[in-house]
Model the fold of this input.
Amino acid sequence: MAPQAYSWTCSICASTWVLQATGADPNAARESIAYEIGYPTCVNPSVGLADTQCVVRMFERYGFKAHQEWVDWNRAQQLCRETTGILNSTRWYHFVGVRGLYGSNVLWVANSAPGYQGIWDQINYATFQQWAGSWQMVWLER
Done:
């Protein structure tokens, strides 16, 4: 994933990656996806993504059945094994795309800010637990 241009655009970058990776919109551009999510009401420089339901609605306009869910480690692993979407910790304050699992038990992510808070393209159990209780996913039903 290409690096994000602005600190507040990680949800836009992650959502764009999902649309490209699934083939729903292989030519999706971050600028247009910002407006599809709902710039400036749903996503803006002041707060980043204000409401994950805006991303849910955007994915649904592409024909997906999307769900927002607060997840623990086991549920995050299950969803990463089965589908894609975007992952966020409200304490980490960053969104990434879900690629799947790296090996059998490490979350593999598409990160527009590689290295932010020590996370590159993998999230292991210890890292996940640093922000336990604050993780959510918007995932796509297959």
In short: The chain has a mean pLDDT of 97.
